[in-house]
Amino acid sequence: MRLLVGAVRRRMLCLWLMLLGFSLVTLALLELFNHDRDQSRDKPIPPQRPFPQISSSPDLEVIVDSQDPAIEFAADLAPLKSLQEDQLLFVSSKQGTNQAPHMKGSYRVLLLGANKDIRATAPPTHDGLEEEALRIQMEVMEKDMELSAVQKYGFNEVISEKISMHRRMPEARHPECLKQRYEVLPSASVVICFHDEAWSTLLRTVHSVLDTAPKQYLHEVLLLDDLSEHGHLKSVLGEYVSHLDGVRLIRSTKRLGVAGCRALGAARAAGEVLVFMDSHCECQRGWLEPLLQRVAQDRTRAVSPVLDVIDWQTLQYNATQWPVRGVFDWRLDFHWESNLLLQEKDPSSAVEAVRSPALGGEVLAIHRHFFQRVGAYDQGMLLWGEEQIELSIRVWSCGGSMEVVPCSRVAHLVRHHPPYSFPDQELLQRNKIRIADTWMNEYRKIFYRRDTLAYFIRQSESPDVTDRLQLKRNLGCKNFRWYLTTVYPQLYIPEDRPALSGELYNVGTSSCANYPHRQGLQGGAMNIAPCSGTGSQHCDLNSESEVRWGPMGALCFDTTGERVVLSPCPTKRPTTSRMRWNYIKMSSQLIHQQSQLCLEAVLEEDIQEISQGDASSHTGGLFLRPCTHHPRQQWHFDQLVAPQDA
């Protein structure tokens, strides 16, 4: 009996050991399976078809330089010598494919986990408190994602992903624009350069062009990748573009910058009119035809639509109030400004194109042959910034003209900050120096007095602009004096008299007169702030007894009660006595002619004693006070750059 019981126990023990071993093997296999599955989730989902290989696909070819016979330049077109064989790859679309392109939703999973849907990973719960806590946690996480996206791209890319790639802009054109009829128009190539652009905004730009431009006029869309590093702009983008009719993708194997990238697009374009467009735009219906009509009527015109604004935080559309035009100041910074003179004209002018001293680079249409003949973009300009001002001065000076066309509207996303860092902080100044030394002649002294960083860079290194000066002579371009008197007479030309121009330094506070930039060009209260030393606080007391402020010189010292403010300078002479000032060199006082009171710097802590009822609205500033010998009434015009040195 004992032997039987022992045999049963041994069999049971063997059975338990077998079950334990089987369980351990099963757990090991499950762990291995889950590990492989997790690894596969971390990998990007490949496109439906593999990206074609360079060696075998007919859709990839090497782009050669300007001597490539495929680029048929006219006899008078300047060759683009910088485009070498080893710099470029070209991807064309698969014309006539029946497979639909990826829609919104499919590209979300191709962003390599950058913006996953939080709700998909949240564990389900039925407890009300836990759900509320989870909701709050998700909101915090989404805010963090939005902040990260803004830091990365310069706008709220999280919200951008939630917007359809085919959203339509609200109608903002004047009713008369809808009555316009267009005859046969030239064909257009839309050139879109991008570098590390967000997927949603890039593809929304492309689809916006395809959805709104008439097919009989839109010859092609050229996407030019200026050496992007983000993964979603590699093979995934190539696969996506291959399904879009009329879209071609060109890749550069070195960083070209805006000027070089757009010059490359112009060299490869086949349309009669080049339309350069930023990679974060959305077009309104009817935007292309008015531009093509103006260029068809005069091939030496460069034209721009009215640029509406897409808010960088909310991605909402904001219509720009017409009329506007492009201008720049003496620091060579570009601005869009309202043209107040046009507002006084007949309402029928709402559909008339406006001649503009300069155009921005957001959207620009120009005839391909004229663009090449006038010298294309200056490829000596580094990365991006100010190339639109250089082209504007050159087009006007060398036989062309520029216009803003009100019946054409394109919305442009204005970033909060650049999406990537410059290789050095002086890049913009180097581009400005190149413009000043090429086009501004003796007026470049005014620029250097207002941009001291550019001045000191210019002292230590001289840009080589020999080729552009030769182009200027070959084209018979007019000088900058002609440009100022004929094209842009509204730009005030400073006198910059010795000891009467520069930063307005206050002895008593060791600070300078200052105007908060956020208050804009319409004027407002002045204050005092540490002297910048950059030229941005430049003042000019001219022979009309006006104290002109800033790089444009469009604002003048004025008064509201006792407070000194800036107001738009008068356009008619003589200047009103309220805006006239005298500077007494012996006492270093600036005297208001109308009141015979002196300009005094008042600190923030003194404001409450001066104006109890309005103390909360003041942060210190400039006031009119009875003249004394107090150091706060003593001022010096400190010229940071001596006129003879500029």
Which bin fits the share of residues in helices? Answer: 25-40%
Count of discrete alpha- or pi-helical segments spanning 4 or more residues: 16
As residue ranges, the low-confidence spans are: 36-125, 608-618
CATH class of the domain at 501-645: Mainly Beta
Largest sheet: 12 strands, mixed
Average pLDDT score: 79
Spatial separation of the terminal alpha carbons = 118 Å
The shape is: globular
Q: What would you report as the Rg, rounded to the nearest angstrom?
A: 32 Å
- Give the strand content: 15-25%
User: Would you tell me the structural class of the helices and strands?
Assistant: alpha+beta
Looking at CATH, which topology of the domain at 501-645 would you report? Trefoil (Acidic Fibroblast Growth Factor, subunit A)
Count the beta strands: 27
Question: What do you see in this structure?
Answer:
Helices cover 29% and strands 21% of the residues. With 646 residues, the protein is α+β, with helices and mostly antiparallel strands. Among the domains are: 44 residues, no CATH class; 145 residues, Trefoil (Acidic Fibroblast Growth Factor, subunit A) (Trefoil). The strands form five sheets. Strands 1, 2, 3, 4, 5, 6, 7, 8, 9, 12, 13 and 14 form a twelve-stranded mixed beta sheet that branches. Strands 15, 16, 17, 18, 19, 20, 21, 22 and 27 form a nine-stranded antiparallel beta sheet that branches. The chain has a two-stranded antiparallel sheet with strand order 10-11. β15 and β16 form a beta hairpin. α11 crosses α13. The chain is globular. About 16% of the residues have low confidence.
